[in-house]
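User: My instructor asked us to take a sequence, write out its structure as tokens, and then describe one feature of it. I'm not sure where to start. Here is the sequence I was given:
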Amino acid sequence: MFDFFEKGGLMLLPIVLCSIVALGIIVERFWSLKRNKILPPDLVPQVWKLSREEKLDAMAIRRLKVGSPLGAILAAGLSNSRFGREIMKESIEEVGRQVAHDLERYLTALGTISAITPLLGLLGTVVGMIKVFSAIMSQGVGDPSVLAGGISEALITTAAGLAVAIPSLMFHRYFEGRVDDLVLNMEEESLKLIEMIHGEREDSSL
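Assistant: Let's start with the prediction itself. The structure tokens for your sequence are:
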């Protein structure tokens, strides 16, 4: 392993650091974007039941707010439901934008890693080829071992850069799609609550 890093040259170090950061982001996002964690099952019917039983007091709304991202959105709407449908909807949309932003946390960094690691690999390739041509100019092409170091550095850094960039890009696109799906589902659940609170819907299953 040490020999691999030695052959890869200095440009391999930032690529390895990028791979560690990317892995950390991927693991963290898998943990944070669990569907049941973002969208607890049957939360809207539970809230509607509390509302009908007149148990939806300030303490219950506070618990709802800290319980999940969907709960935070619903709590914002419930806190302003007495001001009418439009104000309730605006409150939900405002908190929803903040929740969507939180769900996208670290995805920009992951996308940046997927973009820069091939460039780091390319830079390592250029550095390796410069060493090759410098060796040719100073010692000629008679001894292949003189050229091997620069060629190895060029190939290793290119391969390492692509090896980090490809899965980073794949997971970046995957998490973006997952966030979009979660946001859409939260919007649907919020609309159900608005309709139920203002008498336009009797049950969330309808």
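For the description part of your assignment, you could build on this observation: Residues 2-197 form one domain. Try explaining in your own words what that tells you about the chain.
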